[in-house]
Amino acid sequence: xxxxxxxxxxxxxxxxxxxxxxxxxxxxxxxxxxxxxxxxxxxxxxxxxxxxxxxxxxxxxxxxxxxxxxxxxxxxxxxxxxxxxxxxxxxxxxxxxxxxxxxxxxxxxxxxxxxxxxxxxxxxxxxxxxxxxxxxxxxxxxxxxxxxxxxxxxxxxxxxxxxxxxxxxxxxxxxxxxxxxxxxxxxxxxxxxxxxxxxxxxxxxxxxxxxxxxxxxxxxxxxxxxxxxxxxxxxxxxxxxxxxxxxxxxxxxxxxxxxxxxxxxxxxxxxxxxxxxxxxxxxxxxxxxxxxxxxxxxxxxxxxxxxxxxxxxxxxxxxxxxxxxxxxxxxxxxxxxxxxxxxxxxxxxxxxxxxxxxxxxxxxxxxxxxxxxxxxxxxxxxxxxxxxxxxxxxxxxxxxxxxxxxxxxxxxxxxxxxxxxxxxxxxxxxxxxxxxx
Length: 437
Prior knowledge:
This protein is mainly α. It is built from 19 helices and no strands. Helix 1 (7-18) packs parallel to helix 12. The longest helix is centred in the middle third of the chain and has 32 residues, at 139-170. It is globular and about 75 Å long.
């Protein structure tokens, strides 16, 4: 594929991929799990993200190819079935994320502009189809669109931070909320599971940096470019998230935040700055559009990478002759996304995204240690050994029942994995039949 992404574009790509639906749409749901101490889950999520990001940086520098976690899993464990399941989980996490963004697009932010006149599910489906069409045009158009949308969504978050600064200087807000915990069970075990559950859902806001490694074959000098891009991207977004969470709790009660699919719009309405509500709603719509665009783009590239590795049928790697975009992969993932937006809501889809990726992150953190014995000729970034160990442990804890997530999340993830197993079996049969011809 064409190497069209330079260092600055990649940094904006990573920031744009991480920012978006998570902070704009699920902040309220995180507040509902933890209470006024909304900043804490995002701070913990930032630490977990940095640990795993360090493993991804080492691996993408070592193996600068598309397919990401699937490639690393295959090289480390050499088990095709495990490789396929990990790849399929990554793809489904991206589709669940894009679907959550589509649902967020059709929620309170759009309602602020249209007066809730449009059917949410239909809006979400049309939204997915339009993004698939943009993705079909090419990576250059998609990434350039991402840059524009990233700048727009950063503007929206800057508005929130300006409102927070004004509130602090004016003596407005309720600082006491910042240390209030409401996890539905007092202290002890209930408090622990409540905080872990909020962190697991809040971690959805940090997903995205792992998507960027699937662009390795379309990035100029990926060995040198990726470490800086991923670390800067995670650091910038983590700082913004914690500050936005502080402002949100300072100005709005966590129950009000929980009840809204457009929680940051509630912050704008409660702030002392007369910022146009409809303009902010429009900015938020751009933000969730950016998240959905990138996740659909990454899922289609993952299909392309898996097809090249013979994990999926070769037809999944088919590209348009003129545009050089993976047409079969784009159609396939878009159809799955339509199915998800038709059956899920923002919180459940966001939590499903986080759960699937936390499982994948645990495997990737182990893989980076296993692959230390595989030497490559070129120099690359090497993370301290303690970081992937801690990354694997924290990912497993947040993926476990200790995180107190709803049963529907495990059921949805289980159904998706079952679909993956069925596809794997079909592909094995096809490959065996071709070998016997």
